[in-house]
Design a protein that fits this description.
Blueprint lengths: L2 E5 L2 E4 L4 E8 L6 E7 L6 E7 L5 E3 L7 E6 L4 E6 L8 E7 L16 E2 L3 E6 L1
Parallel strand pairs: 2-11
Antiparallel strand pairs: 1-3, 3-8, 4-5, 4-9, 5-6, 7-8, 9-10, 9-11
Length: 125
């Protein structure tokens, strides 16, 4: 049974930074893990993903150059370092993982089978 638990959300001012963590338990047999976000009244958006096999990373245009996704295999933890935060980054952020092989670059939430409960990020101007 795969479980994902996010932490690290909070409230910051624009220009600030946060690091989200996603602690994983169980064996993830798919190849992708990613971060997604959803703001009130908006559709879910793929933020960043990582191919667990080769380590390739992918980002939404809206966060490219500001966010960094990484993994620590020894700690079974996925991270999302968020710098230069903007008010439009305000959302609930979710960690997710696939159960089968997927194209991680697509950042398609429908490809992901396991989801955490989310952590709130609020950026004030």
């Amino acid at each position: 049974q795969v479980q994902l638990v996010e932490s690290g959300g909070g409230s910051v001012q624009a220009g600030g930074s946060l690091r989200l963590s996603c602690a994983t338990s169980g064996y993830i047999i798919g190849n992708c893990m990613g971060w997604f976000r959803q703001a009130p009244g908006k559709e879910r958006e793929g933020v960043a993903s990582i191919d667990l096999g080769g380590g390739s990373t992918y980002y939404a245009d809206s966060v490219q150059g500001r966010f960094t996704i990484s993994q620590d295999n020894a700690k079974n933890t996925l991270y999302l370092q968020m710098d230069s935060l903007k008010p439009e980054d305000t959302a609930m952020y979710y960690c997710a993982a696939t159960r089968v092989f997927r194209r991680c670059s697509l950042l398609n939430g429908n490809d992901y089978n396991y989801w955490g409960q989310g952590t709130q990020v609020t950026v004030s101007s």
